[in-house]
């Protein structure tokens, strides 16, 4: 789908820039920041000093629209505060967190152990994770496609280049066009781990800089297939997904993401250096508040389970 900046988003752009390039159900207390006890002083105190009136948020393109909306609503209620939102991919955001280039990192995948170690080594405090939303990683096809469901094994074969014709996946006798994300994308990493079992993508995959670009490519290609966050599913169809060939086909929606019956549901995260403090804490607290979770639903993702 095309991201059309609303008049309200235009107001946001005056105070926050957006550079867009590029699981299962838990109890409510599991959505609180993990590792918070480790954050006292050190580099985190410099990053999150209480007197800051402007902070930066960088990372996941899957989350950039959501983060923009959070920033907009937060700034409306907090005059004089500025939240600057940038995309670039989860990997870009994580690198910025490690190197001191952002206050908050958006990520559509969990940080890796090595990345957490790098934060500790370079910033002097632990990376603290906060779950902020739930997503059903969607499989996109064109509205004209005759395919309605797919199992994970078949999906993996398609993206590994082992299956190249739709007739072998319930469709017409026509080659499949593959669309995907760049390797700095958290969605790319999640898909590679959970669908491809960490095998390589086929060379034929057309890698695109953002989820919106993937959705738009599939929208214009009758024989295309793509993957990405469910919030971008406009003008395309989402396939039901089967965990195995013999499993029931499950629609990607809130209830199936919460109960984990949809096999590729995931959390969306923010990371900070040490426990959130000052303006960073205020903004993260807003994300998981009732008002912040309403924004999650309005954008097209799913609220955290209670």
Question: What does this protein structure show overall?
Answer:
The protein has 306 residues and is an alpha/beta fold. The chain has two domains: 7-135 and 268-299, D-Maltodextrin-Binding Protein, domain 2; 138-251, D-Maltodextrin-Binding Protein, domain 2 (3-Layer(aba) Sandwich). Helix content is 34%, strand content 20%. It contains eleven helices and twelve strands. It has helices spanning 7-15, 42-47, 64-77, 90-99, 113-123, 152-160, 186-194, 211-219, 254-258, 278-288, 290-299; strands at residues 54-59, 82-88, 104-107, 127-136, 138-141, 149-151, 177-181, 206-208, 224-228, 237-238, 240-242, 265-273. The strands form three sheets. It has a five-stranded mixed beta sheet. α3 runs antiparallel to α11 (290-299), α4 packs parallel to α5 and α10 (278-288) packs across α11 (290-299). The two termini are 31 Å apart. The model is unreliable at 1-49 (pLDDT under 50).
- Overall tally of structural domains: 2
The number of distinct β-strands equals 12
The CATH topology of the largest domain corresponds to: D-Maltodextrin-Binding Protein, domain 2
Discrete helix count:
11
Identify the CATH architecture of the largest domain.
3-Layer(aba) Sandwich
Main sheet: which strands, in order across? 2-1-3-12-4
Strand content: 15-25%
Contiguous low-pLDDT stretches (5 residues minimum) are: 1-49
